Amino acid sequence: MKIQVMFGSLSDERVYAPLTKSLQKCGEAKMDVASAHRDPDKVRDIVQNGGADVFVAGAGLAAHLPGVVASLTTKPVFGIAVNGAFAGLDSFLSIVQMPKGVPVMAVTEENADSVADLLVHWQNLPTDRICLHWSRDQESSAPVNSALEKIKELSGVTVEWVPADHSMGLGQIITPSESPSMMGLNILVCEKSQLQNTNLALDFFSKAKMMGAWVGANNVDNLVLQWKKLVQLKGK
């Protein structure tokens, strides 16, 4: 597997140096400094001509780099939310709340080194079903039930409940009243009205800091699309 790491500034070395080293367990990892704002042509060239299988892009503040990378490739993209200001909250929200069809797996700076473990874990992903963990107590709630039905519809495969430590688990469906228990590709689901509450954004961020890679709240489309992208990595 060939992994391209990109960060927007040399000052982020405290994050990208150990991250790039940890990714060596997955294959060949290459690091370049390239800013979405200052070096757009360089970013485009690296993404389109570098031959990477996976991209890990990190940035702070507005944190546009991961989203720009995702707009230029059909390969899986991780976005590392660097703690540049507001403890990384602004970065995280910029990365995780991507529009449908342009998914990025958002990871907080505290969990950057877990990307390598996630890639190793996801080598076991099945292609005929999506294995997810969710609270059985929340199974009948409207947000969880709706998410499960939409995942089945969009993926065309069955959705199977698995324990949080299952070897073939993709990730976890979480409601605002819960904390994550699985280091996977996780999604926060809630009532639409709850998205009007800014406190939910802070709660979302606190959950992400615990563990995992995340897609935007209620963004089932991007969860399924990421699953499809990750399945294509099997054997690389």
SSE map:
Blueprint: E1 2-7, H1 13-22, E2 28-33, H2 40-49, E3 54-59, H3 65-72, E4 77-81, H4 89-96, E5 105-108, H5 114-121, E6 129-133, H6 142-155, E7 158-161, E8 171-174, E9 185-188, H7 198-210, E10 213-215, H8 220-231
Parallel strand pairs: 1-2, 1-3, 3-4, 4-5, 6-7, 6-8, 8-9, 9-10
Overview of this structure, please?
The protein is α/β, with parallel strands linked by helices and 236 residues long. It folds into two domains: 2-121, 3-Layer(aba) Sandwich (Rossmann fold), CATH 3.40.50.1970; 124-231. It is built from eight helices and ten strands. The strands form two sheets. It has a five-stranded parallel β-sheet with strand order 2-1-3-4-5, with helices on both faces. α4 (89-96) links the parallel β4 (77-81) and β5. It is globular, with a radius of gyration of 17 Å.
Characteristics:
five-stranded parallel sheet; 35% helix; alpha/beta; 8 helices; 236 residues; Rossmann fold; globular; 20% strand; 2 domains
Taken from the alpha-carbon principal axes, the silhouette is: globular
Average pLDDT confidence is: 96
Strand content: 15-25%
Q: Report Rg.
A: 17 Å
Number of strands: 10
Largest sheet: 5 strands, parallel
CATH architecture tag of the largest domain = 3-Layer(aba) Sandwich
Sequence of secondary-structure elements: EHEHEHEHEHEHEEEHEH
Q: How many DSSP helices?
A: 8
- Residue share in helix: 25-40%
**How many discrete domains?**
2
Q: Which residues sit in consecutive blocks of at least 5 with pLDDT less than 50?
A: none
Structural category is alpha/beta
Q: Give the CATH topology of the largest domain.
A: Rossmann fold
Rounded to the nearest angstrom, the distance between the terminal CA atoms is: 5 Å
